[in-house]
Amino acid sequence: QLLLWHMNNYKIQFVVQEEIDINKIKFASNNRNIIVALKNGSLVVRDFEGIAVSHYNHKGRINAITTKNDSIYVGGEGRVVSVYNKEHRYGNKILRHHSWINSINSSNNLLVSGGFDNQIQLYSFATEEISNLSIHQSPVVKAVIDQIQNRIISVDVDGYVKSTNISQLNTKTLFYAKNNIKNMMLAPDSKE
Questions:
Q1: DSSP letter, residue 94
Q2: How far apart are CA 172 and CA 70, in angstroms?
Q3: CA 96, CA 171: separation in Å to the nearest integer?
Q4: Rounded-to-integer distance, Cα 171 and Cα 157, Å
C-alpha cells in the first residue's frame, strides 16, 4: 500500500494498493506526483489520488531514484543510470557501472551515482561529460552532492565517509565508522 501522511493535519491518506511490492518511492520534482518503483522494475508516476500519470518499464530492480525538472533518473541491478521523461519513454542510458547501482543524486548541474563496483560516476548535465572516480575500496552505499561546499560526500559498506572536491576531483576521508553503514543523508547546513 502507498500511504501519504499529511504533517499539517496529521492525517494518513490511502493512495493506492499496488499489485506488485513497492521497492522505492520519491516525490517528483513538481511535488505534485509520487514516483513509485516496483520490485519488477516498473516505474509508475501517480498523483496524490493514486491515479497513474505515467508508466515506464525499467529493466531490473530499481535501487535508486532522483529527479531533475520533468526527468526521472533510476539505477539498480541493470548496471545503468537511465533517464525517463516524455522524450525518453524507454529509458535513455547515461551512465554505466560494472555492478548494481546503489545511489543516485542530482543537483542543478550534476548527477552522481555510486555502486557495488566501488565506483562513483559524476555526470554533467551541461557538457554531458562523465568522470569516473575510483576512491572507495568497497561498494558505495550512498553518494550525494553538497552544492554549498561544491563536493560529493560518499560512504562505502566498510564505513569510510569521503569528501571529493568537484572542481579538483581530490578526495579525503572525513570519517571511519568501523562498521557497515547502510545509508546516509546530508544535513542542509553541513560543514566539515
A1: E
A2: 34
A3: 22
A4: 17
Three-state DSSP at 107 gives: coil
Q: What is the pLDDT of residue 189?
A: 58
Q: List pLDDT tens digits, range 8-50.
A: 666 666 666 777 788 888 888 888 888 999 888 889 998 888 8
Residue position matching grid coordinates 552532492? 145
C-alpha angle 125-126-128 in degrees, rounded to nearest 5: 60
Q: Give the dihedral sign, CA 105/36/39/80.
A: negative
Q: How many CB atoms lie within 10 A of CB 110?
A: 19
Strand partners, 75: 64
All three cell numbers of 191, joined, read 560543514
Provide the pairing of β-strand 140-146 with 130-133. Answer: unpaired
> Where do we find the cell 572525513?
174
The residues, ordered by sequence, that sit 6+ positions from 168 with a Cβ below 8 Å of its Cβ are: none
Contacts for 19 with CB less than 8 Å, ≥ 6 apart: none
CA dist list (Å): 4 to 15, 47, 115: 7, 11, 30
Exposure string of 45-59, with b = 16+ CB inside 10 Å and e = fewer, is: bbeeebeeebebebe
